[in-house]
Specification:
heterodimer; A: mainly alpha; two-stranded antiparallel sheet; 13 helices; B: two-stranded antiparallel sheet; 11 helices; 4 strands; about 70% helix; about 5% strand; amino-acid transport (chain B); membrane (chain B)
């Protein structure tokens, strides 16, 4: 990161994040961060590897249940609970990814969707998920002697976990590994002919993305104290696609922007519109595909380049 | 012989017939998906929503206009087909040049809009739809009772699937269609109006889904939620069968319906997941699908 304005931008964003609870309800910010992390993890796959997974709710939801179970029933401390959820999601991602990368493009999307549905039915039947009621009453526990039940106390460790995960994703994108993923996105046959083991790279990206999506799910359980079947439902998979698409796929900050807009919109509409929320989400989807494919951040970057006269890629 | 492996034969056969009924719906829906994918290179996520529209429109026709089952069977599929044509003209047409994945995303949005709109208007509760009097009751086959309506659903679906196969493989129109699927530019150069064919293909695929919906209305509770899981099962069917051949899609649909019915008898807990398990096994053993031609 030699670029000074970019570095200042990151520091300002971090400062704003640390100061935010003074002005905004911290639970809402943490909810946004959860889904922002989920979308960033997803973007690693859709935006940087060019793989459209339609089953990421499986990893988000499975980790939410595993973390909840670990904290509530096994009485693990919260950080270990998060780790358990993340590892479970990564293992699941390995199994799903290994099957799904056997087909390309549109089939890949359908396979991930179907395997996620398989997991949904398993969660519906399994005893430890609580079925239709979900897993309720997960305690937040304590960290270094601090009681996390207080929203303001939970906020700073929460932000720390988010920043670490976000840094990891950013680091991955700018690493040689990330460059290879982009090469696969642009031209898979060419990457293969250059000697890259494309399937191994894809699987690794899938596992990484699933694990981080799992971390987001586990954080969600910690924040709200429950995990429900909604977390594994395909609607949630659709939501994360929408967040990434709206924010701008293949951009570092796009998913954060997309997740913020969608979560705030849902919170805003929940009491006013009820069942029309789905319709609004669908309309945003259609609008994004037809006229807004670069997303918020993508369009902003393009506009900035036009104004400063730098040639758009 | 009244039992097979300790399972009453009548119960087994009853579940198998029910499995075939479900299989007929899978067959009709995956057939439509396959035809649409061939021409438009779009996987229609809204296919389940069109199926739901078929059933809901049949119920609305009865509830608001007093039109019975037979009128609905004739009127609803063209109506939904016309709706699909309008969608193709206004929305899908704009994204043909893009990656096929955008087609999936756009139709996903459409599925959310239609599903949400129907749920907003009619609520999530199920509405009963009576079996038409001509098809009520059952036939005694000696070894089991076959409900007439189930037999009718299977017969109609098979007839429609065979007719579609005949039109596509054996007629001049079908030859144009196959040519346009193979190479649209060259086909257009021969003076065939490909955009019109694309539009009609989407309309016909949608009409097939609506037909399945009307057929399904008396077998289940008609509700805006009836399609929410259907489309994913049909996707699994399509992955298992591969979209290369029409008969393949039909056979896979019926076969998976049978397997599902069988699972209900042997191990009921797994009946909702068995299709996905079969898909995972097929992917592991034969990644291109049973009838697929992987490039």
């Amino acid at each position: 990161m030699k670029n000074t304005p970019v570095r200042i931008g990151y520091l300002l964003a971090l400062a704003a994040l640390l100061a935010a609870p003074a002005l905004i309800y911290p639970v809402l910010i943490m909810k946004v961060l959860c889904f922002a992390l989920f979308a960033c993890a997803y973007n690693l796959l859709l935006g940087y590897t060019g793989l459209l997974s339609f089953g990421h709710a499986a990893f988000f939801g499975a980790a939410a249940f595993v973390a909840g179970h670990a904290i509530k029933v096994w009485a693990l401390p919260p950080l270990l609970g998060l780790a358990a959820g993340t590892l479970a999601a990564a293992a699941l991602g390995w199994a799903v990814g290994a099957l799904a990368i056997r087909r390309q493009g549109i089939y890949f999307a359908m396979i991930t969707l179907a395997l996620a549905q398989l997991l949904y039915f398993i969660c519906l039947r399994a005893p430890f998920t609580g079925g239709e009621n979900g897993l309720q009453g997960v305690p937040r526990g304590t960290l270094f002697g601090l009681d996390l039940a207080d929203d303001h106390t939970l906020y700073y460790p929460f932000v720390a976990v988010f920043v670490c995960a976000f840094w990891l994703i950013r680091r991955t994108i700018h690493s040689p590994f990330g460059q290879t993923l982009r090469a696969i996105r642009e031209n898979e046959a060419r990457a293969l002919s250059l000697g890259y083991d494309v399937d191994r790279y894809k699987l690794l990206a899938f596992v990484l993305s699933a694990g981080l999506a799992g971390l987001a799910g586990a954080l969600k359980t910690l924040l709200f104290g429950f995990a429900t079947l909604t977390d594994v439902h395909w609607h949630t998979s659709g939501e994360v696609v929408l967040m990434t698409l709206l924010g701008g796929m293949g951009t570092v900050f796009g998913p954060v922007a997309g997740a913020s807009v969608i979560v705030l919109l849902q919170t805003e509409l929940a009491d006013k519109a009820g069942s029309l929320v789905t319709v609004v989400m669908g309309l945003i989807f259609i609008f994004c595909v037809l006229a807004f494919r670069r997303g918020i951040v993508g369009e902003a970057v393009a506009l900035y380049r036009r104004m400063t006269g730098v040639k758009t890629r | 012989m009244n039992e097979l492996f300790g399972i009453p034969l009548a119960a087994l056969l009853g579940q198998l017939v029910l499995g075939l009924v479900n299989g007929s719906f899978y067959a009709l829906l995956s057939l439509g998906l396959a035809i649409i994918f061939g021409m438009l290179h779009i996987i229609n996520f809204a296919h389940g929503a069109l199926y739901m529209m078929g059933a809901m429109l049949a119920w609305m026709a009865l509830h608001y206009f007093g039109l019975g089952y037979w009128q609905a069977l004739v009127l609803v599929p063209p109506l939904v087909g016309a709706f699909a044509v309008a969608v193709e003209r206004t929305l899908l047409r704009r994204i043909y040049r893009l990656d096929p994945l955008y087609g999936l995303l756009l139709t996903f949005g459409l599925a959310l809009v239609t599903g949400g709109a129907f749920r907003h208007a009619f609520g999530a509760g199920g509405q009963p739809y009576a079996i038409p009097p001509q098809l009520a009751g059952a036939i005694d086959l000696g070894f089991m009772f076959l409900p007439k309506y189930r037999a009718w659903v299977i017969a109609v679906s098979l007839a429609v699937c065979l007719a579609s196969w005949y039109v596509i493989e054996k007629t001049r129109l079908g030859a144009y269609l196959r040519a346009a699927t193979e190479n649209p530019k060259l086909t257009q150069a021969f003076g065939i109006n490909v955009p019109i064919m694309v539009m009609l293909t989407f309309g016909c695929g949608a009409a097939l889904a609506a037909l399945a919906g009307v057929l399904a209305a008396p077998t289940t509770q008609v509700s805006p939620l009836m399609s929410s899981n259907m489309i994913i099962t049909v996707f699994a069917v399509v992955v298992i069968g591969g979209m290369g051949s029409i008969l393949g899609a039909v056979l896979t649909g019926l076969g998976l319906g049978l397997i599902e019915g069988l699972t209900k008898v042997v191990y009921a807990e797994a009946s909702s997941t068995v299709v996905f398990v079969v898909m995972a096994i097929v992917l592991a053993l034969r990644p291109a699908g049973l009838f697929g031609k992987e490039k």
